[in-house]
Amino acid sequence: MAKTNQRKLSRAERSELTRSQLIESAARMVGEFGYDGASISRICTHAGIAQGTFYNYFESRQEIFELLPIYYGESMLNYFRHHIDPHVRGLDREVARLEAFIDFFEQHNVSERIINEAPIMAAEGYRRFYKMIREGYRRALERDIASGAMRHMDESELLVLIDMMVAIRNGLSQQILLGESKDERERKTILALYRDIMAKAIFT
Q1: CA–CA separation, 20 vs 90, rounded Å?
Q2: Which string of DSSP letters, residue by residue, matches 120-162?
């Protein structure tokens, strides 16, 4: 039988793997049971890790909770990177962002409890999450302004616009959480109307 040359993980790599497993497990448990129901016992059992090991990585349940909004945000941005054509710019890219958000949310709506409950249960983590989303959006729109694909805005206007765009996404996500997933006809209506609004008000 041929031998497999599988490299053994170093202590640091094993430690990082265990920490990542605990964070992923916490995200799953919050998605299923909410922050209140995501006990350390449930997190460790799901991860297949002894409960005492938890405290080698985190001082408290709250410490791991504060990491979850960023964990969710990074998952969402990674989905966008893989599902939005990198060559699309301007109005087409903004509409593609909204479409990708709807797709991501419908596929990961259980985990959305991480974000919806975070302003109360993981407030600092939520602030970091929103800052990350806002900054990423700002850089993208500044590129559109620089290329002439979008009308000029000063920074204060741009941040207000971003908050409004995020609010639209939040409104759609609440409908999906209530079980009102969008069929193909509704999707086309949402995207067409959004394109029309953005084309008239924001993009050139």
Answers
A1: 36
A2: HHSHHHHHHHHHHHHHHHHHHHHHHHHHTSB----HHHHHHHH
The per-type count for the chain, helices as H runs and strands as E runs, is 11, 0
Is 2 buried (19+), middle (13-18) or exposed (0-12) by CB count in 10 A? exposed
β-sheet bridge partners, residue 150: 203
Entry pTM: 0.84
pLDDT tens-digit map of 120-157? 999 999 999 999 999 999 999 999 999 999 999 999 99
The first and second tokens of residue 79, run together, are 């989905």
Torsion 105-106-111-116 (CA) sign: positive
Between the alpha carbon of residue 17 and those of residues 22, 43, 49, 65, 153, the distances in Å are 9, 15, 11, 18, 44
How many CB atoms are closer than 10 A to CB 147?
A: 11
